[in-house]
Specification:
The protein is an alpha/beta fold and 540 residues long. It has 17 helices and 21 strands.
């Protein structure tokens, strides 16, 4: 069955129909690099990565102009990095508040003063470009550790992860086109000029989010600060350019030295990155979408993606109201931690680096972040991480048989292998039902009592989509007291208990020795005595 996805634009399940079934164009809204990306951000990025991997897989069939088109196929995936310091007051449409890079600069200065900046890091807290480069590199480290393919590819092809600051010239050209066509207008006087998009010039505005212009007018007091409304023709008109001498990062333009609005960035980077087009004269025929697939977190639906559609169609489509920018819009939902919204004040705010430092294996973190259906809120838990690690360990025992196998097309002879691939594929074809796909993998693992190289091959075909087993495995750490399993950090408190236990056993105080074992179990560790007086330590 061809792949079917929920299209946010139409609010319905649809067959995925790329313009060219052999080459899919896919744009993902990436991070704004004024801080470290958290696991909620990565939940969205990894959902897009799994979708991309499945579309590339030989298991995936898509709808083509001549009927179902089997894989494999190439996916050109572009993911931006926003390295412009937009303003902190989102309610004001990006026009008020403080430059986010200034906030980041203070945070970095405080970290330097307290000695909490990572060892070897050198960044000037007063230089916004250094700040952006610092956080961009930290994001890429986490992304590559978690197997985000576009981040891995960008090592050799940086254009796949474009920086907004590299494309301000294109933004200025597109804004000029929108003004010339009557879709944007300039207000203010020299020194304080602003360019707004005229939402009433694009009749379908609101189709993606379900908002209407009348609703947006009625809600103007809540969503948009009143101080920024006086110059606008309509409360929903959004920022394309702002002349502002106070902004840290600014560029010359026909409308004064200033900075671009958030939404215009992705329009330019998507068209340039996926189509290699000159945005000054690029055009699409009536009603023809510009790219195949666009993803982002559900918080991007409005206003960001709504505005992207409007400005992109008005800039590039011969008949804007017939376009939708992307054929398919894919929006993963939010992540909560232990049933609560993630918050630094609650102590449940995690970045991948936080978890890696605690000994969480990248494969387990990736699996925990992808295994809930993307259109359901994911509940991230400690127990979930433990369950994910157990699955990884179980799958690896199969994948490693015979030294592993390639991830090419397989026609397994075993009934359980054929059934696993069929059930896995059916689940993924059904709106990327990763939970159902993982259930199929676990059923397959149970059937592999004595795994064969063919079983390993099946597991590798599956993992080419899930992307967990190929991640780098942490190595075991050996000390004079214990052998700490891969992914287990030799915590000083644990080491101290192990030394106390060794002393108790030498004194034949087995009651204390057993009590320490129980204490370690309560801390989440399992221990096993090994030859040579050492102790093997792993997660319980």
């Amino acid at each position: 069955m061809p792949l079917r996805l929920y299209n946010t634009l139409t609010r319905s399940m649809e067959p995925f129909r790329p313009a060219d079934p052999s080459r899919v164009t896919f744009y993902t809204c990436g991070p704004t690099v004024y801080d470290d990306a958290h696991i909620g951000n990565f939940r969205s990025f990894l959902a897009a990565d799994v979708l991309r991997r499945f579309i590339e897989s030989p298991l995936c069939i898509v709808e083509g102009p001549d009927g179902p088109a089997p894989g494999p196929r190439s996916v050109v995936h572009v993911m931006n990095i926003t390295d412009v310091g937009h303003m902190t007051d989102d309610a004001a449409g990006g026009e008020a508040g403080e430059d986010r890079m200034a906030v980041a600069g203070r945070r970095i200065a405080e970290a330097k003063k307290s000695g909490k900046l990572p060892a070897g890091a050198s960044v000037d807290p007063g230089d916004p470009r250094q700040i952006a480069a610092f956080y961009a590199e930290r994001f890429l480290e986490d992304a590559r550790t978690l197997g985000l393919k576009v981040a891995v590819e960008a090592k050799d092809t940086p254009a796949l992860m474009p920086r907004a600051t590299q494309h301000v010239d294109g933004m200025i050209r597109v804004i000029g086109r929108l003004i010339d066509a009557g879709h944007a207008y300039v207000v203010g006087t020299p020194g304080s000029r602003v360019v707004y998009f005229r939402v009433k010039s694009f009749a379908p505005y609101g189709r993606l989010s379900g908002n209407t212009l009348e609703q947006l007018r009625e809600g103007e007091g809540g969503r948009i600060a009143a101080a920024n409304q006086a110059q606008k023709e309509h409360p929903a008109d959004f920022l394309l350019w702002k002349e502002d001498a106070r902004h840290i990062m600014k560029w010359p333009s026909p409308w004064g030295e200033g900075y671009p609005g958030w939404h215009i960035e992705c329009t330019v980077m998507a068209v340039r990155g996926l189509l290699g087009a000159d945005v000054a004269d690029f055009a699409r025929p009536d009603g023809e979408s510009i790219i195949d697939l666009h993803s982002g977190g559900e918080d991007n639906i409005f206003p960001h993606h709504e505005c992207e559609i409007a400005q992109s169609c008005c800039a590039f489509n011969a008949e804007p109201s017939a376009g939708s920018f992307a054929r398919m819009w894919f929006h993963p939902r939010f992540l909560v931690v232990e049933g609560e919204k993630m918050s630094k004040s609650r102590g449940n705010f995690f970045t991948p680096k936080d978890l890696f430092a605690r000994g969480v294996e990248p494969a387990a973190l990736r699996l925990e972040l992808i295994r809930t259906h993307y259109r359901s809120n994911a509940n991230f838990t400690e127990q979930g991480l433990k369950d994910a690690q157990r699955m990884i360990d179980r799958w690896r025992r199969i994948a490693d048989v015979g030294g592993g196998a390639s991830s090419g097309v397989l026609k397994p002879a075993s009934a359980h292998g054929r059934r696993a691939l069929d059930e896995f594929t059916r689940a993924m074809e059904d709106d990327l039902n990763v939970a159902g796909a993982i259930a199929a993998v676990n059923t397959f693992a149970s059937a592999c009592e004595a795994a064969t190289p063919e079983d390993a091959g099946v597991m590798h075909v599956i993992d080419a989509v899930l992307g967990v087993l190929a991640l780098e495995r942490p190595r075991a750490v050996t000390s004079d007291i214990g052998i700490f399993a891969a992914g287990v950090d030799p915590d000083p408190a644990v080491v101290a208990l192990l030394e106390e236990r060794r002393t108790a056993r030498a004194a034949k105080d087995f009651k204390r020795s057993d009590a320490i074992r129980d204490e370690l179990t309560a801390m989440g560790y399992a221990i096993k005595d090994a030859p040579g007086g050492k102790v093997e330590v792993r997660r319980a």
